[in-house]
Amino acid sequence: MSEIIKDPVILYEDNHIVVLVKPANMLVQGDSTGDPDVLSWLKQYIKEKYNKPGEAFIGLVHRMDRPVGGLLVFARTSKAASRLSEQVRTHELCREYVCVCQGDAPDRFTLHDWLQKDEAANKVKVIPSYLKLQGKEAILHGRGVARRSGHSLVCIRLETGRAHQIRVQMQHAGHPLWGDNRYGNGKRGQQIALWGMRLTLNHPITGESMLFIAPPPEAAPWTAFTRELDGLEKAWPQIIFEPGQL
User: Fold this and answer.
1) Whole-angstrom distance, CA of residue 105 vs CA of residue 10
2) Which of 3, 22, 47, 155 is deepest in the core (most CB within 10 A)?
C-alpha cells in the first residue's frame, strides 16, 4: 500500500496522454466551491513544464467522485480525447476499484440498476426498472476478496460510469461502503473506503496495451486488509472478472 497523497502524482505522460493518481477529496474538475481541482492543476503543470503560451489543452476522459482517490487518464490532444472516449464507450478502457463495505459480500456478483440523480441535492438513488426512462442504466461486476470483522474487501469493475455509481449500488445491495457519510453510515472524519486501483487502456495513438496499478493509502480501514491488497498490487488475479462477463 502507499502513503497518503495530497497532490496528484503523475505515473505516465507523453505528448498524447497523462495518467495520474488523484488524491482523495480533490475535485476532478472545478466547481462553484472554487476548491483546487485536478484538471486545473494538470493544465498548470503542462503549461509550466513545457513553457506553453496560453492555456494548455487537457481532455477530461472519465470522472471520479470527490471523496474517492485513484487512477485517472487525461488526454493532451483532441484526437487522443476522442479515441479514449470511444474506449470508455466500448469498455476497452477499463476501470477497476477496491472498496471496503459492510457485511459479507458475495464471492462474485453483478449489480444492474437504474439510477436517477437529484442535481440540486447532488444525490443519486436507485429507481424501479419500470421508471428506467427517467434514469440511467448502471452495471458493475464485483468479487469479494476477503472478509474480516463484519466488513469485506471487494474488487469492482465498472461497465458503466455513472455519478456515485459504486456507492449507491453497493448501498442498495445492502453493503454500504465504509466511511461513506452520504450513502452509508460514515462518521465525521472518516475517509470513504473506495479507491481506483487498476486502469487498463490502449494508447490512443500507438495502440499499445497499457496497465496501471496504484494501491490505496496506508490508513484505516485498508490496513485491516494489507495482505490481500499487497497480493492484488503484485498481480491482479485474472479470476476476479471472467472473460466475456461484460
Assistant:
1) 33
2) 22
Nearest one of 61, 70, 12 to 193, comparing CA atoms:
70
* pTM for this entry: 0.90
The distance from CA 48 to its chain's CA centroid, rounded to whole angstroms, is: 28
- Which residue is associated with the grid cell 456478483? 109
First to last CA, the chain: 28
* SS3 state of residue 41: helix
pLDDT, tens digit, 9 for 90 and up, residues 102-150? 999 999 999 999 999 998 888 999 999 999 899 999 999 999 999 999 9
Contact 52, 44 (CB under 8 A): no
- Distance of alpha carbon 231 from its chain centroid, rounded? 20
Closest to 98 (Cα-Cα) out of 19, 36, 150, 151: 151
Q: Count CB-CB contacts under 10 A for residue 121.
A: 9
Report how far residue 160's alpha carbon sits from residue 148's, in angstroms, rounded to the nearest whole number: 29
Q: How far apart are CA 224 and CA 240, in angstroms?
A: 20
Residues near 74 by beta carbon (within 8 Å), at least 6 away in sequence: 17, 18, 19, 20, 39, 42, 58, 59, 60, 61
Task: Tell me the per-residue pLDDT of 167-208, one tens digit each, with 9 for 90 and over.
Answer: 999 999 999 999 999 998 888 778 999 999 999 999 999 999
Where in the sequence numbering do the catalytic residues fall? Answer: 65
For residue 128, list its beta bridge partners. none
Grid cell digits, residue 173:
445491495
